[in-house]
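Hi Y.,

Following your request, here is the sequence exactly as I used it, all 329 residues.
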Amino acid sequence: MSEAAVIAQSSVTRAGAVRLLDWLSRYAAFSAVLLVLLVAAFIAPAFFTAGNLRAVLIQSAILGIVVIGQTTALIARGLDMSVAAVMTFAAVLVAQSTATGNFGLLIFQLVVLTGLVGAANSLLVTWRRVPPFVATFAMLIVVDGARLAYTHGQSAGSAPAWLKFLGSGAIAGIPIPVVIWAVLLVVAYVCLNRTTWGRWLYAVGANRGAARHTGVAVDAVVVSTFFLTAISGTLAGILLSGYVGYVDNSLGANYNLNSMAAAIIGGVAFTGGRGGVIGSAMGALLLTILVNLLVVMGMDLYWQRIVQGAVLVIAVIIQGLRAQRAGRS
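Below is the corresponding structure, written out as tokens. Let me know if you'd prefer a different format.
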């Protein structure tokens, strides 16, 4: 075989490897969901009971709402570590609204919470040029501290009846959180794929310098992602407190890492510029199914952590290999 033929064959092989890794990074979550469900049918038939499937859908929806906001931040080459604190504080505010009975005050408090956290994260990242991880982690501590001061370190108690209906009720047999998640997914998909803002978001994540030189309002796009994560955290916190029926200081504690893990598993690049909300939704569904399956099988808590971490590591490895192959092609 001639040298030219060898080079051509090598190029085809590399291109095929890149396409395979690209497919895995984009659609691995969907394939993994189908595989896990198939395995569950053999090893844990109890997983498919109506009550358990309903719980999986609601838990996936609550995580998925957070993931929508986190996905936009990651696409823009950022992240938000404060969403868990926002979720817990929002749940506390709603639970305490039972005592005051002032719904207007509750709406005002939720808007202020969301606005202040979104603005603070945005200003730290765009104005002071603080790395997103540092800025949002600092905001996590601030919001947690503010919540403890607000509640004097005490749990807020039970969720009101209307919130329990919102978190666990149904419309035409479909759980309300799932309906909300589906609507938000459609809106987010359209915004990412059919609007100027969506094109700008991917441009900012791919190359901020180039995006700025082509007239993209880079800082405005980055600011929008932090407001979206704050909004999604507030809404998810409200639904979570309604679903579990009470509020305590550990509510939403795992949602920071789980939301990022779900997005990355769903094909969103940690380096920005690639991914979408449909893949992220599959990532949220996969994580929820895995954890629930382990619970149904009676596995200890540490196995849940191990499996979640292993899935995330595999997804990151696939993305890393894809980036390396693409760079060499």
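DSSP finds 13 helices and four strands in the chain.

Thanks again,
Q.
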